[in-house]
Amino acid sequence: MSDTALHRLLLVDDHPQALKLLSRLAEKLGYSYETATDGREALQKVSDRQPGYFSAVITDRMMPNLGGIGLLESLHQLPGYEHLPVIMQTALSDEQSVQEGIEAGAFYYLSKPLNLKVVEQVIAAAVVDFKTHQALLDRLNRLEDAFSLLYEARFQYRTLEEASHLAAVVSRFTRYPTSSVIALYELMVNAVEHGNLGIQYEEKTRLIQSETLQGEIQKRLQTAPYAQRYVTVAVVREEEGVKVVVSDMGEGFDCEPFMSFSPERMMDTHGRGILMASTLGETRLAYSDGGRTVTCHFEQATTKAQTDDQ
């Protein structure tokens, strides 16, 4: 069974021809799928299923009854669906429209008329993120809630697997761990890939397209000077919350273009991690040291009850 067959898409569009086009593409790529003709029907279909049944939703922005933005906001209010990837297809590509979608939680975009190759790549990116984030949440749920007595901690890691484990650990300090775990993971992965390993934006695009990204990461982890680099994570409880400082040993980078999501990059298969981190988990981010250090501020989990998202 192919990996795509393990994932189910929900396709939402009020135009029959557009829905048929997406359905044929899903079949071609090997995804299971269901369809809906407006946001209200889509919301009902998701509500009727257990979290994890759908791996991604592809929706038109302008629809009767309930449009794409309304659907997105409603989906992310459902318990267990807070991080279900929603791919917004729209003819609107101006920065204000994109920002409106970002604020509602849309990190994946398709611009009409659809380029089928781009559609394939964006769906694949959303599904990979869904798998990664589900694994993070599973790991988070298995951790013991034993951090109420911990005041300060310092960690070091080198690999993406270690980043995944550490993000789950550190998120337990925060009030909203199921959101902050994803925010922390995205920042910690960025510190490895773009920081310590020096993988540049365009280079990562090519590696993803050639399906060689993981191989290149493993190669660099074992090659000087990258093999000697590690990421440091410091966690401090403060009166006003929890401060997490992530520092890599790379050459630094200009973080400013990645703090917002420009229309020029809205259909790229990566590059949304920092923006996701700044949006999720009530996070406040500040970069320093030429982009090598990011300081995050979260609300603090002061009781066990507060560590459970509402």
Question: What's the quick description here?
Answer:
With 310 residues, the chain is α/β, with parallel strands linked by helices.
Write the layout of secondary structure elements.
Blueprint: E1 8-12, H1 16-29, E2 32-36, H2 39-47, E3 56-60, H3 68-75, E4 86-90, H4 95-104, E5 108-111, H5 116-142, E6 152-157, H6 160-171, H7 177-196, H8 201-209, H9 213-221, E7 231-238, E8 241-247, H10 273-279, E9 284-288, E10 293-298
Supply the key terms.
single chain; 310 residues; alpha/beta; five-stranded parallel β-sheet; five-stranded antiparallel β-sheet
Instruction: Report the count of strand segments.
Output: 10
Specify the biggest β-sheet: 5 strands, parallel
Q: What is the chains' assembly state? A: single chain
Secondary-structure-based class equals alpha/beta
Helix content: 40-55%
How big a fraction of the residues is strand? 15-25%
Question: How do the SSEs run, as a string of H and E?
Answer: EHEHEHEHEHEHHHHEEHEE
Spans of at least 5 consecutive residues whose pLDDT stays below 50 are: 304-310
> What is the global morphology?
globular
C-alpha termini separation: 37 Å
Radius of gyration: 19 Å
Report strand order across the widest sheet: 2-1-3-4-5
Number of helices: 10
Mean pLDDT, all residues: 86
